[in-house]
Amino acid sequence: MALSLSNFPSITAIKSTQNPFSVKMSPLTNNISVSTKSTNKKLPILLFDVMDTIVRDPFYHDVPAFFRMSMKELLDCKHPNVWIEFEKGHIDEVELTRNFFKDGRHCDIEGLKNCMKEGYFYIEGVEELLHDLKRNGYELHAFTNYPVWYQMIEEKLKLSKYLSWTFCSCVIGKRKPEADFYSEVEKRLGVEPANCIFIDDRLKNVDAAIEAGFSGIHFKNAETLGKELSLLGINLLKDVQCAN
Questions:
Q1: Which residues lie below 8 Å from residue 83, measured CB to CB, with a gap of 6+?
Q2: What is the pTM for the complete model shown?
Q3: Checking DSSP bridges between strand 215-218 and strand 23-24, what pairing results, if any?
Q4: How far apart are CA 100 and CA 232, in angstroms?
Q5: Average pLDDT in the 28-40 region?
Q6: Element (H, E) at 70
Q7: CA 66 vs CA 45, 52, 77, 106, 148: distances in Å
Q8: What are phi and psi of 171, to 5 degrees?
Q9: pLDDT tens digit string along 155-178?
Protein backbone atom coordinates (compact mmCIF):
# COMPACT_ATOMS: atom_id res chain seq x y z
CA MET A 1 0.00 0.00 0.00
CA ALA A 2 1.30 3.47 -0.83
CA LEU A 3 2.81 5.40 2.05
CA SER A 4 0.76 8.27 3.40
CA LEU A 5 2.89 11.34 3.92
CA SER A 6 0.36 13.46 5.76
CA ASN A 7 1.70 12.48 9.18
CA PHE A 8 5.37 13.15 8.48
CA PRO A 9 6.94 15.31 11.22
CA SER A 10 7.87 18.84 10.34
CA ILE A 11 11.44 20.02 10.80
CA THR A 12 10.15 22.37 13.48
CA ALA A 13 8.91 19.40 15.47
CA ILE A 14 12.21 17.59 15.01
CA LYS A 15 14.21 20.56 16.21
CA SER A 16 11.96 21.10 19.22
CA THR A 17 13.06 17.75 20.64
CA GLN A 18 16.72 18.78 20.17
CA ASN A 19 17.21 15.79 17.90
CA PRO A 20 20.89 15.39 16.97
CA PHE A 21 20.14 14.13 13.45
CA SER A 22 20.65 16.05 10.24
CA VAL A 23 17.22 15.79 8.60
CA LYS A 24 16.48 19.02 6.78
CA MET A 25 13.29 20.18 5.11
CA SER A 26 12.93 22.56 2.21
CA PRO A 27 12.35 26.17 3.28
CA LEU A 28 9.36 26.07 0.93
CA THR A 29 7.42 23.70 3.18
CA ASN A 30 7.41 22.43 6.76
CA ASN A 31 6.28 18.97 5.74
CA ILE A 32 6.84 16.45 3.02
CA SER A 33 3.52 16.51 1.25
CA VAL A 34 1.87 14.56 -1.50
CA SER A 35 2.16 16.21 -4.90
CA THR A 36 -1.02 17.56 -6.39
CA LYS A 37 -0.06 15.73 -9.56
CA SER A 38 -1.63 12.32 -10.10
CA THR A 39 0.85 9.53 -9.41
CA ASN A 40 0.77 5.84 -8.64
CA LYS A 41 4.28 5.94 -7.19
CA LYS A 42 4.96 5.05 -3.59
CA LEU A 43 6.17 8.25 -2.00
CA PRO A 44 8.57 9.61 -1.04
CA ILE A 45 11.13 8.75 -3.72
CA LEU A 46 14.71 8.48 -2.44
CA LEU A 47 17.64 10.00 -4.32
CA PHE A 48 21.06 8.71 -3.27
CA ASP A 49 24.47 10.12 -3.88
CA VAL A 50 26.78 7.18 -4.59
CA MET A 51 30.40 7.92 -3.71
CA ASP A 52 31.06 7.89 0.04
CA THR A 53 27.30 7.54 0.62
CA ILE A 54 26.71 4.07 -0.82
CA VAL A 55 30.16 3.14 -2.15
CA ARG A 56 33.60 3.83 -0.72
CA ASP A 57 35.35 6.41 -2.91
CA PRO A 58 38.83 5.11 -3.81
CA PHE A 59 39.97 8.50 -5.04
CA TYR A 60 40.45 9.64 -1.46
CA HIS A 61 41.58 6.30 -0.05
CA ASP A 62 43.68 4.60 -2.73
CA VAL A 63 44.52 6.85 -5.68
CA PRO A 64 47.22 9.03 -4.07
CA ALA A 65 49.15 5.89 -3.12
CA PHE A 66 48.71 4.53 -6.67
CA PHE A 67 50.46 7.65 -8.00
CA ARG A 68 52.99 7.52 -5.11
CA MET A 69 51.90 10.94 -3.93
CA SER A 70 50.24 12.51 -0.95
CA MET A 71 46.72 13.80 -1.48
CA LYS A 72 48.04 17.35 -1.44
CA GLU A 73 50.62 16.54 -4.11
CA LEU A 74 48.01 14.87 -6.27
CA LEU A 75 45.61 17.79 -6.00
CA ASP A 76 48.42 20.22 -6.79
CA CYS A 77 49.54 18.47 -9.97
CA LYS A 78 46.35 17.14 -11.52
CA HIS A 79 44.47 19.32 -13.99
CA PRO A 80 41.88 21.35 -12.03
CA ASN A 81 39.02 20.90 -14.51
CA VAL A 82 39.57 17.74 -16.53
CA TRP A 83 37.92 15.34 -14.04
CA ILE A 84 34.88 17.61 -13.83
CA GLU A 85 34.61 17.60 -17.61
CA PHE A 86 34.93 13.81 -17.58
CA GLU A 87 32.19 13.56 -14.97
CA LYS A 88 29.92 15.67 -17.15
CA GLY A 89 30.60 13.46 -20.16
CA HIS A 90 32.12 16.37 -22.06
CA ILE A 91 35.40 14.53 -22.69
CA ASP A 92 36.25 10.87 -23.21
CA GLU A 93 38.83 8.61 -21.60
CA VAL A 94 41.44 9.44 -24.25
CA GLU A 95 41.31 13.13 -23.44
CA LEU A 96 41.26 12.39 -19.71
CA THR A 97 44.46 10.38 -20.13
CA ARG A 98 46.13 13.13 -22.14
CA ASN A 99 45.22 15.92 -19.71
CA PHE A 100 44.93 14.27 -16.28
CA PHE A 101 48.11 16.01 -15.12
CA LYS A 102 48.37 19.69 -15.87
CA ASP A 103 52.05 19.39 -16.86
CA GLY A 104 51.22 16.76 -19.49
CA ARG A 105 53.06 13.86 -17.84
CA HIS A 106 51.93 10.32 -18.66
CA CYS A 107 48.95 8.92 -16.76
CA ASP A 108 48.53 5.15 -16.48
CA ILE A 109 44.79 5.24 -17.05
CA GLU A 110 44.32 1.46 -17.09
CA GLY A 111 46.22 1.14 -13.83
CA LEU A 112 44.10 3.96 -12.37
CA LYS A 113 40.89 2.22 -13.44
CA ASN A 114 42.03 -1.06 -11.86
CA CYS A 115 42.94 0.79 -8.67
CA MET A 116 39.52 2.40 -8.57
CA LYS A 117 37.66 -0.83 -9.26
CA GLU A 118 39.54 -2.72 -6.55
CA GLY A 119 38.62 0.03 -4.09
CA TYR A 120 34.86 -0.02 -4.68
CA PHE A 121 33.04 -1.50 -1.69
CA TYR A 122 29.68 -0.91 -0.09
CA ILE A 123 29.95 1.35 2.92
CA GLU A 124 29.23 -0.68 6.03
CA GLY A 125 25.53 -1.26 6.59
CA VAL A 126 24.35 0.58 3.47
CA GLU A 127 23.59 -2.45 1.30
CA GLU A 128 21.34 -3.85 4.02
CA LEU A 129 19.54 -0.51 4.25
CA LEU A 130 19.03 -0.39 0.47
CA HIS A 131 17.71 -3.95 0.58
CA ASP A 132 15.17 -3.02 3.25
CA LEU A 133 14.02 0.06 1.34
CA LYS A 134 13.63 -1.92 -1.87
CA ARG A 135 11.79 -4.72 -0.08
CA ASN A 136 9.31 -2.20 1.28
CA GLY A 137 8.53 -0.85 -2.15
CA TYR A 138 10.38 2.47 -2.18
CA GLU A 139 11.65 3.85 -5.47
CA LEU A 140 15.40 4.55 -5.32
CA HIS A 141 17.57 6.45 -7.78
CA ALA A 142 21.26 7.28 -7.95
CA PHE A 143 21.92 11.02 -8.07
CA THR A 144 25.66 11.14 -8.55
CA ASN A 145 28.57 13.14 -9.91
CA TYR A 146 30.49 10.41 -11.70
CA PRO A 147 31.91 9.62 -15.14
CA VAL A 148 31.15 6.62 -17.32
CA TRP A 149 33.22 4.60 -14.85
CA TYR A 150 30.00 4.20 -12.85
CA GLN A 151 29.66 1.11 -15.04
CA MET A 152 32.64 -0.40 -13.19
CA ILE A 153 30.79 0.12 -9.92
CA GLU A 154 27.72 -1.56 -11.34
CA GLU A 155 29.77 -4.45 -12.70
CA LYS A 156 31.35 -5.10 -9.31
CA LEU A 157 28.61 -4.26 -6.81
CA LYS A 158 25.35 -4.58 -8.81
CA LEU A 159 23.72 -1.46 -7.36
CA SER A 160 20.92 -1.87 -9.89
CA LYS A 161 19.50 -4.60 -7.64
CA TYR A 162 18.34 -1.72 -5.44
CA LEU A 163 18.25 1.49 -7.46
CA SER A 164 18.21 2.93 -10.95
CA TRP A 165 21.22 4.81 -12.33
CA THR A 166 18.87 7.61 -13.38
CA PHE A 167 20.79 10.76 -12.51
CA CYS A 168 24.45 10.36 -13.46
CA SER A 169 26.34 13.52 -14.29
CA CYS A 170 28.05 11.88 -17.28
CA VAL A 171 24.64 11.10 -18.82
CA ILE A 172 22.76 14.28 -17.85
CA GLY A 173 25.71 16.60 -18.54
CA LYS A 174 25.23 18.44 -15.24
CA ARG A 175 26.76 18.16 -11.77
CA LYS A 176 25.74 18.80 -8.20
CA PRO A 177 25.31 21.36 -6.76
CA GLU A 178 24.15 22.99 -10.02
CA ALA A 179 20.48 23.91 -9.65
CA ASP A 180 19.52 22.66 -13.11
CA PHE A 181 20.71 19.15 -12.24
CA TYR A 182 18.13 18.97 -9.43
CA SER A 183 15.43 20.25 -11.78
CA GLU A 184 15.88 17.10 -13.85
CA VAL A 185 14.06 15.09 -11.17
CA GLU A 186 10.61 16.50 -11.88
CA LYS A 187 11.20 16.27 -15.63
CA ARG A 188 12.27 12.63 -15.57
CA LEU A 189 10.26 11.18 -12.69
CA GLY A 190 7.10 13.29 -12.91
CA VAL A 191 7.07 14.11 -9.19
CA GLU A 192 7.62 17.36 -7.37
CA PRO A 193 10.78 17.81 -5.27
CA ALA A 194 8.66 17.95 -2.11
CA ASN A 195 7.92 14.26 -2.62
CA CYS A 196 11.61 13.28 -2.67
CA ILE A 197 14.31 12.79 -0.06
CA PHE A 198 17.87 13.56 -1.14
CA ILE A 199 20.81 11.87 0.66
CA ASP A 200 24.45 12.92 0.20
CA ASP A 201 27.65 12.95 2.24
CA ARG A 202 28.48 16.48 1.04
CA LEU A 203 26.57 19.16 2.88
CA LYS A 204 26.75 21.67 0.02
CA ASN A 205 24.89 19.20 -2.20
CA VAL A 206 22.24 18.65 0.48
CA ASP A 207 21.84 22.42 0.93
CA ALA A 208 21.39 22.85 -2.84
CA ALA A 209 18.73 20.12 -2.84
CA ILE A 210 16.89 21.80 0.01
CA GLU A 211 17.02 25.11 -1.84
CA ALA A 212 15.45 23.32 -4.83
CA GLY A 213 12.54 22.11 -2.69
CA PHE A 214 13.69 18.62 -1.65
CA SER A 215 14.01 17.26 1.86
CA GLY A 216 17.62 16.38 2.58
CA ILE A 217 19.74 14.19 4.79
CA HIS A 218 23.46 14.74 5.28
CA PHE A 219 24.85 11.20 5.26
CA LYS A 220 27.22 10.17 8.05
CA ASN A 221 26.77 6.41 8.38
CA ALA A 222 24.17 3.75 7.68
CA GLU A 223 22.92 3.47 11.26
CA THR A 224 22.24 7.18 11.57
CA LEU A 225 20.68 7.30 8.11
CA GLY A 226 18.23 4.57 9.04
CA LYS A 227 17.15 6.53 12.11
CA GLU A 228 16.80 9.74 10.11
CA LEU A 229 14.69 8.03 7.47
CA SER A 230 12.47 6.67 10.23
CA LEU A 231 11.96 10.23 11.47
CA LEU A 232 10.53 10.97 8.04
CA GLY A 233 8.13 8.05 8.27
CA ILE A 234 10.10 5.63 6.08
CA ASN A 235 9.20 2.04 6.91
CA LEU A 236 12.31 -0.15 7.18
CA LEU A 237 10.60 -3.15 8.78
CA LYS A 238 9.79 -6.28 6.84
CA ASP A 239 6.12 -6.41 5.92
CA VAL A 240 4.39 -9.21 7.80
CA GLN A 241 1.42 -10.98 6.26
CA CYS A 242 -0.94 -12.12 8.97
CA ALA A 243 -3.03 -15.22 8.31
CA ASN A 244 -6.75 -14.94 8.98
A1: 96, 100, 147
A2: 0.85
A3: antiparallel
A4: 42
A5: 47
A6: none
A7: 38, 19, 14, 14, 21
A8: -95, -40
A9: 999 999 999 999 999 999 999 999
